[in-house]
Amino acid sequence: MIFFFVEVEDSYLGPRIDGDIVTSDFVMDMVQHFKNQRMIHKRYIYQIVSKAMKIFQPVTSLASISLVDDAHITVCVDIHGQFYDLIHIFELNGFPSKENPYLFNGDFVDRGAFSLEVILTLFAFKATCLEAIYLARPPDEGLMSDLLWSDPQTSLGRAPIKRGCGVMFGEDVTTKFLTDNNLKLIIRSHEVKDDGFEVMHHSQLITVFSAPNYCDRCDSDGSFI
Question: Where does the UniProt annotation place the signal sequence (predicted)?
Fold first, then answer.
C-alpha cells in the first residue's frame, strides 16, 4: 500500500506506528499531539484511513449493536469537527474501549476547525478495537435520509420542513413508529438545543447534540447519553 513508500523523516517528533498495528498507546499519544495543535505524519494518516476503509467498506452504513445484560453504550452526535469538545467528552465519560463503547450518530466533521483531528481520532479508536466505537453513516437521499433529517414538532401529524429533506412529525407519528417496530425509545440528533438535549413526545423521543457553543455562534450546551 502507498504508506509503505512514505518515508518518515528523522526530524518528525510525533507519535509513530510501529509496523502495521494501531495500538492504544499510539492513539493516546496522537490525541495529546492533536491537543497541542500538531499533526501526525502523513504516513500514519494513510495507515489509519486505510484501516478504516477495510473496516467500513464491507458493512452497512447503519450500525446494529447488541449489548449483554448490565452493559452500556454512550451515544454522541453532531461533533462537527469540534475536537476539544470530543476529547472533553472522553475525559468526562472515559475513553472508548470494549467495556466503554460509543455510538457516534453522524455529523462527525465539517464546520468545526478540527475536522481532520476528529475523524482520525474516531478512525484510530475503531482500528484499535472494533467494539470500542460505532459510526453510523446518514445516506444522501431516500427513505433513510428522510428519517434521519426529519424533526419533531409539538403538534400532531406531519408538516413541511425547512431543511429540504424529511418532514416535521408529531407525537402520534412517534408512537406509531415505536409500536410498529417494537421499539421503546428514539434517540435522534442533528438539531441544536440550548441545553444540549431535549425530551419530547411523552419521553418517547430524546434529541441529543454533542457540540457545545456550536460553530462559536450558539450559546448552547453539548450532551451525550
Answer: none
